[in-house]
Specification:
This protein is of the alpha/beta class. 47% of the residues lie in helices and 15% in strands. The chain has nine helices and seven strands; from the N terminus they run E-H-E-H-E-H-E-H-E-H-H-E-H-H-H-E. It has a seven-stranded parallel beta sheet, sandwiched between helices. Helix 4 links the parallel strand 4 and strand 5. The model has no long low-confidence stretch (mean pLDDT 94).
Length: 245
Amino acid sequence: MKGLAGKSVLVTGGGGAIGGAICRRFAEEGAKLLVADRAKESAENVAKEVKGRALVFDIADYAAANKAIGDTGVDILVNNAGWDRFQNFVDMQPEDWDALIAINLRGPLNMHRLIVPQMLARGTGRIVNISSDAARVGSSGEAVYSACKGGVISFSKTLAREVARKGITVNVVCPGPTDTPILRGFLGEGEAGQKVYDALVRAIPMKRIGQPDDIPGIVAFLASDEAAFITGQVISVSGGLTMAG
């Protein structure tokens, strides 16, 4: 894709399933990867694979993130890091919300605050935020997660308006059910988990669960010069499960 070779790309949650796939896709385009993750070994493994640099920090900790990034130039920011716990809202206590909000909402806000000023100074930049279809259509057992991811969508649209004239685009990708450790943990083991999995597959028009490698193509496109006139948009990657307008 046009305009990705040589660009500095920071991917949060880069050591995870989707994050690692995104890093590998950008590496194929000749980009320079900054693999950010709070799990040191995971970050270093992916960084080694893509010949990039590992940044180990918690995105929810603004000071730690600022220290880790320092004066590193970032051309493309992919806010991918996320975490979920599956529990009905009425069964949760306020303290149960804290980690969900910290990782899924405050973390991306921290990253934007650290990276956007340098993009404004250069007059160019690409931001792709990974939200979730749970934010677009709802998902039982994910009320607070959905709220955070919905906040990311609203924030992205507003930021896109604020920085459009400065040469920066901000777009959102919403994965549907994707084969990751988080989903596997939700489905559970054994026959009961398999039944839920099979029901989910039946509900998806393409009749399969998404794979981590289904996500990076649209992310790379939105970060490329070929999407230079696209901003403030929300795109689902769900095999047709959700078709929100």
